[in-house]
Amino acid sequence: MGTDPACHDIVMPTACYLSHPQVLIDAHVPVPRWGLNAVGQARVAALAASGALAGTGVIYTSTETKAVETATPLASALNCPLHQRDEMGENDRSATGFLPGPAFESAADAFFANPGDSFHGWETAQDAQQRITTAIDAALNAHPGDDILFVGHGAVGTLLYCALMNIPIDRRHDQPHGGGNLYRFDTTTRKPDGPWRPLETLIN
Questions:
Q1: DSSP readout, 27-72?
Q2: pTM of the model
Q3: What is the pLDDT of residue 6?
Q4: pLDDT tens-digit profile of 123-181?
Q5: Cα Dmax for the chain
Q6: Residue 8: its pLDDT value, please?
Q7: DSSP code, position 23
Q8: In sequence order, which residues have a C-beta less than 8 Å from that of residue 9 and are 6 or more positions away?
Q9: Is 77 left (phi over 0), alpha (psi -120 to 50) or beta?
Q10: What are the tens digits of pLDDT across the range 118-136?
Q11: Partners of residue 154 on adjacent β-strands
């Protein structure tokens, strides 16, 4: 009687890093307190209802409103613990406050192009990268064997991706416009399975 090779397959735990989707921009509200807009909420609801993240054992999220509003429906649908961590927040841009479109894009270009330098008081890319990698490592070490979902932000998610890939910080690895993108990585090797892609790739 033959033995099914699949019986010997070992499924290694994976981690998924998900950036929050579209937000309601309000120049009069601090950026960390921005929430999701209707499009962002609908995308999260679709992911939560799809079952695509079934098997996730725990979720870690930034404490910023848009990240919490992304993580909370997913934790509810998955019936798994949700941990909020300040260390998973977006790069600190409070020194300049809100910057409108073109000004922000120029600032973001400078942030990635000069990782060791502060753009007008911003947290440096190097410091933000160290912060997010330390937070991710701590969560992974606290939950060996579990599939983990990390919910956060585009810039620090890109810095994490560069660290996991062991490549220089570069904005060309940044997420596609609009947010709501993800990549997965093996919790043992820490290697991503590819670059950012829209969350809908898990559903469709």
A1: TTS-GGG--B-HHHHHHHHHHHHHTTTTTEEEEEEESSHHHHHHHH
A2: 0.93
A3: 42
A4: 999 999 999 999 999 999 999 999 999 999 999 999 999 999 999 999 999 999 889 99
A5: 71
A6: 42
A7: B
A8: none
A9: alpha
A10: 999 999 999 999 999 999 9
A11: none
> In whole angstroms, how far apart are CA 141 and each of 62, 133, 150?
18, 12, 14
| CA nearest to 91, candidates 144, 169, 187 | 169
Tokens of 169: 């910080």
Closest CA to 15 of 133, 188, 169: 188
Give residues with Cβ within 8 angstroms of 21, minimum separation 6: 36, 39, 40, 43, 44, 70, 178, 179, 180, 199
> What percent helix, strand, coil does the chain show, rounded to 5?
45, 15, 40
Q: What local confidence, expressed as pLDDT, does residue 37 receive?
A: 98
Q: Which of 171, 199, 7, 168 is nearest to 104 (CA)?
A: 171
Alpha helices in the chain (DSSP H): 38-50, 65-78, 101-113, 125-142, 154-165, 200-203
Q: Which of 42, 45, 26 is nearest to 34 (CA)?
A: 26
Enter the tokens of residue 20: 């929050």
